TrEMBL record:
InterPro entries: LptF, LptG/LptF_permease. Keywords: Cell inner membrane, Cell membrane, Membrane, Transmembrane, Transmembrane helix, Transport. This is Lipopolysaccharide export system permease protein LptF. Its main location: membrane. It is found in: Cell inner membrane. It is a multi-pass membrane protein. It comes from the Bacteria. The gene is lptF. Signal peptide: none annotated. The chain crosses the membrane at residues 12-32, 52-78, 99-125, 270-289, 301-319, 325-346.
Length: 369
C-alpha cells in the first residue's frame, strides 16, 4: 500500500510540475504577444511590459494551477490504464475508491494555494494592475514614445520622432517634431534634447542646436530658423476618474457589499477551488481507457468537460450579475450537476460499463468471406 501511494504521489508531482510549466509558457507567450502589440501601437510604454505581464500571470495563476492538476491526474491514471499498471494494482485488492484518498492528499495543498490566490492575491493583483494602468494614462505624451517610431499626440496636432533615449528617459537624441499652429505647419529637428519640469509643474522638452521650418499649406514659402535652445511644452493626459469594479475588491469587502455584481464575483472566486476538486474527482473515472476506443478519446472528452464546466460557471456568473439567478442559488447548480456526473461515471466504472457513448466507439469492421 505504501509503495502504491509513493509511486502515485511521485508521478502526480512530476506530471503536475511539467504540465504547469507548459501552460505557463503558453500563457506567457500569449500575454506577452498581446502586450507587445499594445506597445507597438503606442498604447503602452516600453517599460510597462514586465509589470503588466507579471500582474496578468498572477491573475491567471488559479486557473493555470487548476488545469495543471486536473491534467496531471488524468494523464497519470490514463498511462497506468494503458500500460496495465492499474490492472495490477486492482488485482492486488485496490478498489476504485482507494484511489480517491491519496489523490485528495496530493490535491489538498494545491487547493489551499489556489484558494489563497483566488480569494486574496488575485483581487490584489487586479487592483494593482488597474491602478498601474491609470498611472500610465496620466503620463505625458513623451512617456509612450518608442525609440525609432513616429508617435502622434493625443490631440492629433503634433507628431514626435525620437531616435534614442538614455537609460532614465530624460536625455534624447535626433529629435523630429511636426506641429500645426494657426494654420501653419512647423517642423523642428535637433541633435539632442532633454526633459525637465518647470516650477509650476508643466513638463517641457528642451531641444538644443537645431532648426525650425515653418510652411503654409499650398504655398512654396518656407521660413527657416536656427536655434541654440527651443522649449516645447508637453501636454499631460487628462483621464476620467477610476471606477471601482468587483474584480478589484477584496473578498472581505465583497462579503459586506450587497450588489449583485459583488455577489457574482464572490461566487466566482469560491468556484475556482471547488471546481478544481470536482474536476480532479471526475478525472479518476475519465482516465479509464477503452481498448476498443481511440487512445486519446477519453482525454479529449475530459478536456471538453473541463471547458463546458468553466463556461457554464461564467454564464451563471453573468446571470447572477444581471439578476436572473438569485445570489442564494449562485453557481451551485453547475457544481451539483458535475458532481452528479462524477457519481454517474463512478457507478458505470464500478460495474465495468463503458464511460463513452456507444456512437463514439470505433467498431471494427469484419471482413466478409
Amino acid at each position: 500500500m505504501k509503495i502504491f501511494k509513493r509511486a502515485l504521489s511521485a508521478e502526480l508531482m512530476s506530471s503536475a510540475s511539467a504540465i504547469f510549466l507548459i501552460i505557463l509558457g503558453i500563457v506567457v507567450a500569449q500575454r506577452a504577444g498581446n502586450i507587445v502589440r499594445q506597445v507597438s501601437r503606442g498604447i503602452l510604454p516600453n517599460d510597462a511590459i514586465g509589470t503588466i505581464l507579471t500582474f496578468s500571470l498572477v491573475q491567471f495563476m488559479p486557473m493555470m494551477m487548476s488545469l495543471a492538476v486536473f491534467l496531471a491526474v488524468l494523464l497519470t491514471l490514463t498511462r497506468w490504464h494503458r500500460d496495465s499498471e492499474m490492472v495490477i494494482w486492482m488485482s492486488a485488492g485496490l478498489s476504485l475508491r482507494q484511489w480517491v484518498l491519496p489523490i485528495m492528499r496530493f490535491l489538498a495543498p494545491i487547493v489551499l494555494i489556489i484558494s489563497l490566490f483566488s480569494l486574496i492575491i488575485m483581487p490584489w493583483a487586479s487592483g494593482k494592475a488597474d491602478s498601474y494602468r491609470e498611472q500610465l494614462k496620466k503620463r505625458d505624451e513623451l512617456s509612450s514614445i518608442s525609440p525609432g517610431t513616429f508617435k502622434e499626440s493625443s490631440a492629433g496636432d503634433r507628431i514626435y520622432f525620437i531616435e534614442s533615449f538614455d537609460k532614465l528617459g530624460y536625455e534624447v537624441k535626433n529629435v523630429f517634431v511636426q506641429s500645426k499652429q494657426n494654420g501653419k505647419i512647423g517642423i523642428i529637428t535637433a541633435n539632442r534634447g532633454s526633459r525637465y519640469k518647470a516650477s509650476n509643474g508643466d513638463n517641457f522638452l528642451r531641444l538644443e542646436h537645431g532648426r525650425r521650418y515653418e510652411t503654409t499649406p499650398n504655398s512654396l514659402e518656407v521660413m527657416t530658423t536656427e536655434f541654440e535652445r527651443y522649449d516645447i511644452r508637453v501636454e499631460a493626459k487628462e483621464t476620467a476618474p477610476a471606477t471601482t469594479t468587483a474584480q478589484i475588491k477584496s473578498t472581505q469587502s465583497l462579503l459586506s457589499d450587497a450588489s449583485a455584481a459583488d455577489h457574482a464575483e464572490l461566487h466566482w472566486r469560491m468556484a475556482i477551488p471547488i471546481s478544481t476538486i470536482v474536476m480532479v474527482l471526475l478525472a479518476i473515472p475519465l482516465s479509464f481507457v477503452d481498448p476498443r476506443a481511440g487512445r486519446s478519446l477519453n482525454i479529449m472528452f475530459a478536456i471538453l468537460i473541463f471547458i463546458i464546466y468553466n463556461n457554464l460557471l461564467s454564464i451563471f456568473q453573468a446571470w447572477i450579475t444581471q439578476g436572473k439567478i438569485s445570489v442564494l442559488v449562485g453557481l451551485w447548480p453547475v457544481h451539483l450537476s458535475f458532481i452528479l456526473l462524477g457519481w454517474y461515471l463512478y457507478h458505470r466504472r464500478k460495474h465495468l460499463k463503458p464511460l463513452m457513448p456507444g456512437w463514439l466507439k470505433r467498431t471494427p469492421k469484419i471482413a466478409k468471406p
